[in-house]
Design goal:
Mean pLDDT of chain B: 87
Strand order of the largest sheet of chain A: 6-7-8-3-9-10
Radius of gyration of chain A: 25 Å
Oligomer: heterodimer
CATH architecture of the largest domain in chain A: 3-Layer(aba) Sandwich
Shape of chain B: globular
Order of helices and strands of chain A: EEEHEEHEHHHEHEHEEHEHEHHHEHEH
Number of strands of chain B: 0
Mean pLDDT of chain A: 79
Order of helices and strands of chain B: HHHHHHHHHHHH
Number of helices of chain B: 12
Number of domains of chain A: 2
Strand content of chain B: under 5%
Distance between the termini of chain A: 30 Å
Structural class of chain A: alpha/beta
Largest interface: A-B, 40 and 36 residues
Low-confidence stretches of chain A: 254-300, 348-354
Number of helices of chain A: 14
Strand content of chain A: 15-25%
Structural class of chain B: mainly alpha
Largest sheet of chain A: 6 strands, mixed
Helix content of chain A: 25-40%
Distance between the termini of chain B: 37 Å
CATH class of the largest domain in chain A: Alpha Beta
Low-confidence stretches of chain B: 1-17
CATH topology of the largest domain in chain A: Rossmann fold
CATH superfamily of the largest domain in chain A: P-loop containing nucleotide triphosphate hydrolases
Chain lengths: ~350, ~300
């Protein structure tokens, strides 16, 4: 059963269209809602909470209509806003107990669950201090705790990683993932960074300008999206030829969507045909597969000595390493990255008109 | 659903070795979830506690409790003197005591009304309330009731201290009981009027400092305007105008209602003329309180959640 369904959901603020006939179907699990600022993410959440009437269209949360059953929906979901929402002069414990009671939990249950929830989000002794003295990371945890304390069936997390440093971001993402997997609570989490969501989400919904750009399972979106950025000091052309010869798909640098995008027709079969077994030995005996293969007919200019290699399995790293060693050039970087949001937007934009 | 008996038979990890904390993972909650009345009561009680600084930092307890102490001190002294040296009656009536408290009460509401409502607006905790099952109207009702109760405690407790003093001093029981009830009616009306005015002002300004200053100013200005009008009317011999001048001040308004309803001597000199005067004072009070409630409801209908 879907936790959130919208059909032709439209919201206009005067002349501004925030949501434009949006059809979304969110399944149980962790779902990422991705979009640039102003794409309509927060508006969607407010409509789903029954706090903002839609101009037209329908939306259901947990099988309840948002227009008529707002109060019931708000009883069963949790909401973590994007902005600050904590009074500074109360302790985390006092505040979360109060919010648990405001969700209808009797006082004793509210206290018990507050202690549990604060422990789960990683607040220990600090919880007896006033919130005003907390770091941003700790405040985000309190905000998350108040959204979870009444054990909702679904939580809306609006930009939970906002304002966090990289370590705090990692912690928060891990926590969001655990809410979905260990706690068994469905999560709808928004972000403008696809990269961080695709690691923790089962599904990703991309909205732009109030319209649905793409809804995929994360697995489908990311299998082909792993890319290795390689930068060398010299002789990049030769290196690219050598890697292509070894059956890898290489795009010359800068323009990520050049003509070399995707699996070239000539290279793919070679890679899946005999490269993997050869790589297994090749890495060990220091004689990369690519060396004996004559350089292909493809000759590409490689500006800046930088290019990208599509990664299908870990063996690709070995191939690149060995080829670089063989040529004796300096390797400036070899960095794994995933698709940027922009690329998904481009792909979506290409697919959309059709 | 598990019955409590079922739960007892399942092994509880932390029941065994003493002092060992087991991480038993996330626990679902399948206990009761209480309804609308409970939410109203919770918000009312927690706001009322907050009006005296409980559940907040130690610093925020100082002002309300010191003011409350100052309000009670004269009553304690009167009660002690009455019992130590004896006496036939209280040196001041209950409504007179209420009148002398008016300055302290004004300072108290100016400090506490912004913490009751501006705080939620400023730090945007309203979005957490309104994304819960609580209705917006109920939020206003709970806050208004809590503020009223806080002011009622502020003015009512000193009167009860006086009353206790008269009982210990063996003053006529029924006479004193009647008098204190009149005083408490006055305290309740004061609480409704001051609570309403201060909450409306506080709900407009998210900034606490502005709220405090604005409430103090409005209450003081209202009192002095009423005083000036009264004085001028007395000087120029306009009896009717002077009788109605105190409508302009919250404290005078409540006193006028008490004078009219219970046929007391007016604290400030001139009583409102007869039944008409009583009705005027009463209806102004009712209108003022309902206008405040209406404005608050309107204000919170527009508060956005983001």
């Amino acid at each position: 059963m879907s936790v959130v369904v919208t059909s032709a959901l439209t919201k206009r603020f005067g002349p501004v269209t925030a949501l434009d006939s949006l059809d979304v179907d969110v399944r149980p699990g962790v779902t990422g809602l991705v979009g640039a600022n102003g794409a309509g993410k927060s508006t969607l959440i407010k409509i789903l909470l029954g706090l903002l009437p839609a101009t037209s269209g329908r939306a259901e949360v947990l099988g309840l209509d948002v227009a008529s059953s707002g109060e019931q929906i708000r009883r069963a979901v949790g909401y973590m806003p994007e902005h600050d929402c904590l009074p500074p002069d109360v302790t985390a414990t006092e505040f979360v107990v109060h919010m648990a009671r405001m969700s209808g939990l009797p006082t004793s249950a509210a206290r018990e669950r507050t202690a549990d929830t604060l422990r789960h989000v990683g607040l220990y002794e600090e919880r007896y201090r006033p919130v005003g003295g907390y770091s941003t990371g700790m405040k985000q945890r309190v905000k998350l705790a108040q959204a979870l304390v009444h054990d909702p069936r679904l939580v809306f997390l609006d930009e939970p990683t906002n304002g966090l440093d990289p370590a705090g971001r990692e912690d928060m993402l891990g926590l969001v993932r655990r809410i979905g997997t260990d706690f068994g609570i469905s999560v709808l989490v928004t972000s403008h960074l696809l990269g961080e969501l695709e690691r923790i989400c089962d599904h990703v919904v991309v909205v732009d300008g109030g319209r649905l750009l793409r809804a995929t399972s994360t697995a489908a979106a990311t299998t082909a999206s792993q890319v290795l950025t390689v930068e060398v000091t010299d002789r990049a052309d030769e290196l690219v030829r050598m890697l292509r010869g070894a059956g890898l798909t290489v795009r010359s640098g800068g323009n990520g969507h050049g003509p070399g995008n995707g699996h070239g027709p000539g290279n793919g079969p070679t890679a899946s045909g005999d490269a993997p077994p050869a790589d297994g030995n090749g890495a060990a005996d220091g004689d990369p597969h690519g060396l004996r293969t004559p350089a292909g007919t493809l000759t590409a200019r490689v500006p800046d000595g930088r290019f990208e290699v599509e990664v299908t399995d870990d063996a690709a790293h070995d191939v690149v390493r060995d080829a670089v060693t063989h040529l004796g050039v300096g390797l400036i970087r070899m960095q794994r990255r995933r698709h940027h949001l922009a690329e998904i937007f481009q792909d979506g934009a290409h697919a959309d008109p059709r | 659903m598990q019955t409590p008996a079922d739960r007892d038979t399942t092994p509880v990890p932390n029941g065994g070795a003493a002092g060992v904390i087991h991480d038993i993972g996330y626990q679902r909650y399948d206990g009761s979830r209480l309804g609308r009345g409970y939410l109203l009561r919770t918000l009312f009680l927690d706001t009322l506690r907050g009006c005296y600084g409980f559940g907040r930092s130690a610093k925020s307890k100082i002002m309300p409790l010191v003011l409350f102490g100052f309000g009670c001190l004269p009553a304690i002294i009167i009660a002690v003197i009455l019992n130590a040296f004896g006496g036939e009656e209280l040196p001041m009536t209950y409504p007179e005591y209420l009148w002398t408290l008016s300055m302290l009460v004004s300072i108290y509401v100016a400090g506490q009304a912004p913490q009751a409502v501006s705080r939620d607006l400023r730090f945007r905790a309203t979005s957490l309330y309104f994304s819960r099952p609580l209705r917006r109207g109920d939020y206003v009702v709970a806050k208004f009731a809590a503020m009223t109760a806080a002011v009622l405690i502020f003015t009512g407790v000193p009167m009860l201290i006086l009353y206790l003093g008269t009982l210990l001093a063996k003053l006529p029981f029924w006479e004193q009981t009647g008098d204190v009830l009149v005083g408490l009616v006055g305290a309740l009306l004061t609480a409704l009027v001051l609570g309403g005015i201060s909450l409306v002002i506080a709900a407009i300004t998210p900034r606490r400092g502005f709220g405090v200053a604005a409430i103090i100013t409005v209450l003081l200005v209202a009192n002095s305007v009423a005083g000036v009008v009264f004085g001028v009317a007395q000087e120029t011999g306009r009896e009717t105008l002077s009788a109605y001048a105190w409508v302009l001040s919250p404290t005078g308004l409540v006193d006028g209602v008490l004078v009219g309803l219970f046929d007391l001597p007016a604290v400030n000199g001139v009583s409102p003329p007869g039944t008409t005067g009583c009705l005027v004072y009463l209806s102004v009070t009712v209108l003022l309180v309902s206008a405040c409630a209406g404005l608050l409801l309107g204000r919170y209908r527009k508060v956005s959640v983001s």
